Protein 1
Amino acid sequence: MKITTEQSLSNFNFWSGAKENAKELTIEQLNQVEWILEDMYPDGIDETQLNDIFWFDFETIKEWLNITDEDEDEE
C-alpha cells in the first residue's frame, strides 16, 4: 500500500546521516531547499529519496544555498 503525505522539510523525520545534515540548516534554509525540490520534483518524492538527498547529496544542497566551507569554519 502506498500512503502519500504532504509536509514541510522542517517537520520531516530524517534518519541516519541525513538527520545530522538537516540539523545544520536553519528553518529558512530548509524552506529554500523545499522550494527547489518542489520545482525539481513536481509530482513529489518518497521519504527514502528525500532522506538520501540530504544524506548523500548534502554538498549539492549546500551549493544551492551558497554555503561554503568558510561559512562552516566561522561557526
Note: The radius of gyration is 13 Å.
Protein 2
Amino acid sequence: MHKSILKKIFCAALLVSAMIMPAANIAAAAELKAEVKDAAYESKWLNGTYPTVKLKNTAVGDRINEAIKAEVERFSLNLRSNYWLHRDQVGTISYRLTCNKKNALSFVLNEVYSPGKGASKKVRARAMTFKLTDGKKITYDDVWSIINALGKTRKFDREGLTELLYDQTRRAGVALYDEFPGTPYPPEDIYLDDKLRFHVIFQPGVVADEATGPIDIDIDEENW
C-alpha cells in the first residue's frame, strides 16, 4: 500500500480517537471496550433482542443502556398504537454490532413491522454510536470536526452528502426518487464500522421507494 495512503489511514484513526476521548486520557482510554450481551424483549406486539452493555464505569454503561432502551421502547410504543387496528401484526427487533473498539460502540437496530394479512413488511435500520468514555452519542457534528481536520469538508455538507448518495446508489444499482430534492440534513443514523469508517443510513421512503429498504452510505470512502 502506498505510504501516503497509510499515513492518511493512520491520521484518520488518530482523529477518530481524539474526537471520542479527551486528549489527556488517550493512552488509558484506548483500552476501553464494552461487554455486549443480548437482552430479550417480549410483548404482544414486539419480540426480539437488543444490545445491553457493561462497562467498568457503571454510570457510563447505564447511560448507554438507557439510550438504547429508549429507542426500543419508542418502537414498541408505535407498534402498540397499531395493535388495536392490526391484531395479527408482527413486530421484531434485532441488532448488528458494527464497532466495539477505539472507545466507540456502534450498532444498528433492525426494526421490522409486518401489519399482517399479506401486507408488505416495513423495515427500519436505526444506527447508534456512543463514546465509551462518557456514554454520549456521537453526532454528525462530531464527524464533521474529524473531516475538517482531514481537510475534507464538502462531501459532508448537504451537497457533498447528496453526491455521495448518488454515486454509491448508482454503483449499487439502486434507483432514487425521480424528483429527488437532496438528502435530509444533518443525518441522524450514523455508525462506525470495524475499520472506523463512518456510515449514514437513510430510512426506507426517504430518498427512494420504501420497498428498496434502508440505504447505507459509506461517507468515509474517500479517506481510506
Note: The chain is about 35% helix and 25% strand.
Protein 3
Amino acid sequence: MTNLATSFLDATSVAARAIEVPAASFDDGMNLGASNAPGIGIATDVANLTGASSGWTLLDQFAAARTPQDSQHIGGDGLDDGISGTGSVPVDVITVDASGDGSGAVAGVATLASLAAGWSAV
C-alpha cells in the first residue's frame, strides 16, 4: 500500500477568509497540513491491513463509507457556531511540490473502497 500525503481544505472557509485577507494564500503551505483534518490514518504504510476491530474497517467511526473519506475542521469551519458530526468535504490526496515551499497538487480524494487495495486517490 502506498503512503499517501493528505490535506484538507474547505473551499467555503477559504473563500470567506480570502475576502478578509486578500493578499494571503490559503491554498498551499501550512494550510494543507494545519487544517486539523489532514487525513489521520490515511498516510500509512501498513502491509497487513485487515478488517479486524482493532485495525481498519471499511466504515468510519460514524459507520459511513469511506468513498470518499469526508472530514471537517475540528468544531466546524469557524464561520458558524460549530457543527458536530462527520463533515461533508472529502480529504484530498496530494502530490507535494518538489520545491519544498509547502505547495502541492490535488491527486484525487482519499478513498477506501476495499481493505485489500487500501487507500487510493480517486
Note: The mean pLDDT is 76.
Protein 4
Amino acid sequence: MPESFHSTISLPEEPLIKIRPRRPWSLIDFRDVWSHRELFALLVWRDLKGRYKQTILGAMWVILQPLLMTLVFTIFLGKLVRVQTGATPYPLFLYAGLLPWTFFSNAVSSGSYSLLASSQMITKVYLPRLIIPAAAVTVRLSDFLVASVVLIIFMRYYGIHLGWQILLLPAMVLELTLLALALSALLSALNVKFRDTGTALPVMLQVWMFASPIIYPASLIPERWRWTLLFNPLAGIVEGHRAALLGRAFDRTLVVSSIVVTFVALAAATIVFRRMEKSFADVI
C-alpha cells in the first residue's frame, strides 16, 4: 500500500462508539444487574472453585483465621489484661466480634482488587461493573456462614441460649454485607486509577479494627469519646451482632446510627463508582 495513503488517515479524537451504562447518574441500574444475573452467579462460582485450589487445609482456613485470632487475643487480653465483658465469657464475646470483622476485612480486601483481577473481561465486553466487587463480597459471605458453625459450638459449650434477639441477626448480616459492598465498590474504583490504594488499605483496616469495639466492649471507651462510635458503622453492627446472638443489651442509638451511615456510604460509593466506571477500560 502506498506510503501516501497512510499519511491521509487520521483517527477521531472521540471514539465513534462508546459502551457505557444507559443512566450514568443513577445509583444502581437494577434492570441491568438483573439481566446479568447469570454472569454474577458464574463469577461467584468461579471464585469459590479457585479459592482453595492446591491448598492442604482447603476450606478449614475459613474457620482457622477467626479461631486463631480468638486464641491469641484471649491469651493476651483475656488472661493478662483481663478485659471485662460482664456475664459473657471473653472467648465467646471475642469470637462473636471477630467473626463479622473477618468477613468484612476479607471482603473489602478482595473486593478492592476485583476490578484489576478482571481487567481482561472489562476491556473486552460490557457488563455492569458493580457485579464484579459484589461477586467478591458474596464469596466472602459464604466464608462467614461456614465460620459461624464454630460460634454455635462455642454457644453450646458455654450454655448460651438464643432469645428473641436472634430475629435481628439477618438485618445485622445484611447491613454488614452492604457496608462491605460500599467499601469494595469505592476502593476497587479508586484502585484502578490510584494503585497505592491497595497499599494503604491494610493499614486502614488495621486502624479500623482497633477503633471498633471488636476485641473490647464499647463500655471501655471513655464517655467523652463514645460519641465517635456513632460515625463508625462497624461499632453498631458488631454490637448488634453480639446482642442478637448472646442476649446482650441492644444499643438502639448505636445500631440506628450505623444503619444511617451504612446507607449514606453505599449511596456515595455507588455514585463515585458509576462516575468512574466509564474510564475503567482505558485506565486498567
Note: The chain has one domain: 27-273.
